[in-house]
Specification:
The complex is a heterodimer. Chain A has 15 helices and 2 strands. By secondary structure, chain A is mainly α. Chain A has 2 domains: 91 residues, no CATH class; 227 residues, MetI-like (MetI-like fold), CATH 1.10.3720.10. A two-stranded antiparallel sheet of chain A has the order 1-2. By secondary structure, chain B is α+β, with helices and mostly antiparallel strands. Chain B has a domain of 208 residues: Dipeptide-binding Protein, domain 3. Chain B has 17 helices and 21 strands. In chain B, the strands form 5 sheets. Chain B has a 7-stranded mixed sheet, with helices on both faces. A 6-stranded mixed sheet of chain B has the order 14-18-13-17-15-16. A 4-stranded antiparallel sheet of chain B has the order 4-5-7-6, with helices on one face. In chain B, a hairpin with a 5-residue loop joins strand 2 and strand 3. Chain B starts with a helix and ends with a strand. The N terminus of chain B is likely disordered. The chains are: A mainly alpha, B alpha+beta. The interface between A and B is large, with 59 and 73 residues.
């Protein structure tokens, strides 16, 4: 056992499982600590008109009459057999709902990250190429704007402007999955991905800038330059390659957050993603939906973290040796 | 309860629905294309049959069980799918539905319904009196937990002497019964259907049938070719979920969505500025400061009257809701409407308010714990803050507790507040609207916090006659009784805004926020 635990991968897996269990407990407790239940969420103030018999019958229907410990372990037991629970609002299993919502969020997250890297890394390198110059200042201003303009504002402004002036609003057509209509699907992803990328490109740009500046002052870069390595090659092979570790860390972190669903952007652009699934679950107090979905998100986060770690080994031989 | 087996069935049904949805969605033509086909837009002419209307809604129905639906989106969808014994016309008068006529005995204790012939459910079976008896019995049964159970409280027995007749025997005359039977929570379903199956596979007698449903995304209904009345004009109506009201307006501007109902005055203004047609409809629901007279601080009528006199209702309306609405008295239904000037202080009178406080021996001022919800409707917090500043001038301190809607409902249901800023639903019949609040045996009396022998008696009188001429003065008296005792402080009624694009005709918005006239709506 001891030798097994010493193995990095095993150790990481054990930590991951413990993290997930912790998340499960916290979500379960928090949901029940907030006021209201599925009954009040469904009936609103009409709940007051229920007789005790009616209330009891509804509690039994929603499974709220069982002791908390039983509720927790029957849910956890269900998870192990792939049963994420039942959404009485949607009249389908949480598994089916998640299978619908997760690809939407995954696609949006991937597109956003690609866009952010395409915008952020070159901008960061440009800024770093001549620190404190006009182009650096311009880059910094763009970065600051990206960080400070809230997504809901940008999203609403983009959508209203394009609908009013160009009558172009692919998101009003109802969500199209890539399998149904790939063209429309990509059109629907453009604006939300751009909105999110604007915010995420900013930290990537700043990380790139500072990482590049740091690497450029290292001895080996000076040596390479002295040896006559052409500037372009020097930037790509020597500087950027070595600046990648912090950039990958930042990107992985942002990607993880995106998998949690960009609730605001999903709302404005009517994308049926995982963020909206959690939000609806909370509004309707559908405990199983929220618990299971949050756990799926946590699992995704853990996996992305593991993958980021694996990427370090690929990029940096020193990590591999350690 | 056989929970396990029902779940299994629902699983299977859920997947079957999903498969249907996938098959149906790809076949749905784009409505915006058909509407711009170039036909001359002759407004006023009867629209031709055909077309696919997309209605933008902010949320998916939270249930498809008509007996448990209270959410606007759920009620809107279910009204297209189900039928009721009686119905409302556009002015909220009771008209025949699945019953073509009814007789009320002279003592008011027996109501005999004659059912319409040849009505079929969407499963093909024919409506008979057995279905009506079974539906009403289940709605009345406490174990069903139907939201309209209390509306059948006066019904002692339900019988079917033959296949086309249903007889309700009442324990006391109930003039509100016919109007109470017209709401979708009284939907008639087949006797053999079980509630769990209905929740995924609706089986009603409405003008439309369910065609496709993708949870959280869209729900489509198609014309019911076997409908007993005038067939719907539209081929399909899709309720498309666009969670943000501003995004719905954008989708209408770009031609993806043709209709929606907005409740935020600000968004409605944007929509009007964007060139959409906006129809304003005064609502039965009312904005109110509920006072809980069972709490010691408000048990003295003089304190309650002081609060009433210290409030300029028009100011609340102007600051919180852009002036979009009308100052109201207790009863909002058009036929029995209260005169908002018929109250102790029709205009604000701070001096009089202070007098009332002095009479109560509270010249030093009072503090009222007030609950306010966020997220339920857009104007709540602004209303509360305006009330707070107005009352402060009379020495009355509103201690506001702004709560998330779940927390608010919990406190409201438990009557755990001195005062509550609320937007309560109204009903066409004044008895249905208030007897549950203000009679001592009403199921919401604990929350209302006020009742009196006079009111109890007046409500019994109001139920005893079905003649509007007899009932009107009784409800006028009830309104006065409520105002003179400042049971609550009624503020104003708002509007709902039906937004449509060019080419949508024949839709009639209603004061109870019903979308039942989708069945007469056409696209040209």
């Amino acid at each position: 056992m001891r030798t097994l635990l010493r193995h990095t991968l095993v150790r990481r897996l054990v930590t991951a499982l413990a993290t997930l269990f912790g998340v499960a407990v916290v979500v379960f407790v928090m949901l029940r600590a907030i006021p209201g239940s599925q009954i009040t969420a469904n009936l609103g103030i009409e709940t007051a008109a229920l007789t005790p018999e009616q209330r009891a019958s509804l509690e039994a229907y929603y499974g709220l009459d069982r002791p908390l410990v039983v509720q927790f372990f029957s849910w956890l037991g269900g998870l192990l057999t792939g049963n994420l629970g039942w959404s009485s609002r949607a009249h389908t299993s949480v598994l089916a709902l998640t299978a619908q919502a997760l690809p939407v969020t995954l696609e949006l997250a991937l597109l956003t990250i690609v866009l952010s890297l395409v915008i952020g890394v070159p901008l960061g390198m440009l800024s770093a190429s001549k620190p404190n110059s006009a182009r650096d200042a311009a880059g910094q201003v763009v970065g600051l704007a990206g960080l400070s303009i809230p997504a809901f504002l940008l999203a609403t402004a983009l959508l209203s402007a394009l609908s009013a002036w160009l009558h172009w609003n692919p998101n009003g057509a109802g969500y199209a999955s890539p399998g149904k209509d790939l063209g429309l699907n990509l059109e629907q992803m453009v604006l939300p991905a751009l909105t999110l990328a604007f915010g995420i490109a900013a930290p990537i740009m700043r990380t790139t800038r500072s990482a590049v500046l740091e690497i450029r002052s290292e001895d080996f870069v000076r040596t390479a330059r002295a040896k006559g390595v052409p500037p372009r090659r020097l930037q790509a092979r020597h500087v950027l390659r070595n600046a990648l570790v912090p950039i990958v860390t930042m990107t992985g972190l942002q990607f993880g957050y995106l998998l949690g669903g960009a609730v605001v952007v999903e709302q404005v652009f009517s994308l049926p993603g995982i963020g909206r699934q959690v939000l609806l679950g909370i509004q309707q107090k559908e405990y199983a939906t929220v618990q299971s979905t949050v756990l799926v998100i946590a699992l995704a986060f853990v996996v992305v973290n593991l993958l980021t770690d694996a990427l370090y080994r690929l990029i940096d031989p020193r990590v591999r040796a350690a | 309860m056989q929970r396990g087996s029902r779940r299994g069935g629902l699983f299977a049904a859920g997947f079957a629905t999903l498969a249907l949805v996938l098959a149906a969605c790809s076949a749905t033509p784009q409505p915006s294309d058909t509407s711009s086909a170039g036909a001359p837009a002759t407004t006023g002419a009867a629209p031709a049959a055909g077309g696919n209307l997309v209605v933008g809604v902010t949320s998916d129905p939270n249930t498809l069980d008509p007996w448990k639906a209270t959410q606007f989106q759920a009620v809107a969808v279910l009204q297209t799918l189900y039928g009721t014994l009686t119905e409302f016309d556009k002015d909220l008068n009771v008209v025949p539905g699945l019953a073509t006529s009814w007789d009320v005995s002279s003592d008011g204790l027996t109501v005999t319904f004659h059912l319409r012939q040849g009505v079929t459910f969407s499963d093909g079976s024919t409506l008979s009196s057995a279905d009506v008896v079974s539906s009403l019995t289940k709605i009345k049964d406490k174990a069903t937990a139907a939201v309209a159970a209390a509306s059948l409280a006066s019904v002692a027995s339900i019988a079917a002497p033959d296949a086309s007749t249903v007889v309700l025997t009442l324990s006391a005359p109930d003039a509100a019964l016919l109007a109470n039977l017209a709401v979708i929570n009284m939907a008639i379903v087949p006797a053999k259907a079980d509630e769990a199956t209905l929740a995924t596979t609706p089986d009603g007698t409405g003008p439309f049938v369910l065609k496709a449903h993708t949870p959280n995304q869209s729900l489509t209904v198609a014309r019911n070719a076997a409908y007993w009345g005038d067939k719907a004009l539209l081929d399909t109506v899709e309720f498309r979920v666009i969670p943000d009201q501003s995004s719905i307006v954008s989708a209408m501007q770009s031609g993806n969505v043709q209709m929606s109902v907005l409740d935020d005055p600000l968004v409605a203004q944007t929509a009007a500025a964007a060139g959409l047609t906006i129809q304003k409809t005064p609502q039965l629901s009312y904005h109110v400061l509920q006072l809980n007279a069972s709490r010691s601080v408000l048990s003295d009528v003089n304190v309650r009257l002081a609060i009433q006199c210290a409030i300029d209702r028009q100011q609340v309306l102007d600051t919180a809701a852009l002036g979009e609405g009308e100052v109201t008295g207790p009863i909002t239904s058009p036929a029995y409407k209260s005169d908002p000037n018929d109250r102790p202080c029709p205009t604000r009178d701070v001096a009089k308010a202070k007098d009332y406080l002095a009479k109560a021996g509270k010249s030093g001022g009072v503090t009222i714990d007030t609950i306010v919800s966020t997220g339920e409707y857009s104007t709540s917090v602004n209303e509360a803050q305006n009330l707070q500043s107005q009352l402060a001038e009379a020495g009355i301190t509103l201690k506001l507790e702004v709560l998330e809607s779940g927390a608010y409902v919990d406190r409201w249901v438990a009557a755990d507040f001195d005062a509550a800023v609320a937007l309560n639903g109204g009903r066409p019949d004044p008895d249905g609207m208030y007897s549950r609040y203000f009679t001592s045996t009403g199921n919401l009396n604990k929350v209302a916090g006020y009742s009196s022998p006079t009111l109890d008696q007046l409500f019994v009188q109001g139920r005893a006659s079905s003649d509007p001429a007899v009932r009107k003065p009784i409800y006028k008296k009830i309104g006065e009784e409520l105002e003179n005792n400042a049971a609550w402080v009624w503020l104003f009624t708002g509007y709902n805004y039906t937004a449509t694009v060019k080419g949508v005709t024949g839709f009639v918005p209603m004061a109870n926020n019903s979308l039942q006239f989708l069945r007469t709506t056409g696209l040209s």
